[in-house]
Amino acid sequence: MGQVYPPGALPATYPRRDLGVVLVPRRGFPYRASRCIMVGMKSLTIHLPDELGQQLEELCRRERRSPEDTVCEILRRQLVLDRFHELCRASEPLAKAAGFESEEDVLRAIS
């Protein structure tokens, strides 16, 4: 996440155009409400189907995390997974050129 400053503690040199105020609700979630200014973060509004929204709420309660933190972590994991698959596809021709025909061949070579 970006740098977090309590209200009134923002450095005077920071450009004001990139500010956002985050309000975390008090009811419905077991985490404490906070009001802070987030620096260096993008804002995104999404609409979730009811079932997915309920699953997100349950996950947030279980992990005692805010919906924002939970969704950021899920997105971060998905981006890492997508990058991994992209690298696998890109390296496949190199592996075949080196004589590896399957994942089992690679596992045998490194075991």
Describe the structure.
The chain is 48% helix and 11% strand. It is mainly α and 111 residues long. The protein folds into two domains: 1-43, no CATH class; 44-111, no CATH class. It has a three-stranded antiparallel β-sheet with strand order 1-3-2, with no helix packed on it. The longest helix has 31 residues, at 67-97.
Number of domains: 2
Annotation field: number of helices: 3
* Span between termini: 38 Å
SSE ordering = EEEHHH
Shape: elongated
List the helices and strands and how they pair.
Blueprint lengths: L2 E3 L14 E4 L11 E5 L10 H14 L3 H31 L5 H8 L1
Antiparallel strand pairs: 1-3, 2-3
Give a short synopsis of this structure.
The chain is mainly alpha-helical.
Offer a few descriptive terms.
111 residues; mainly alpha; 2 domains; three-stranded antiparallel beta sheet; 3 helices; elongated
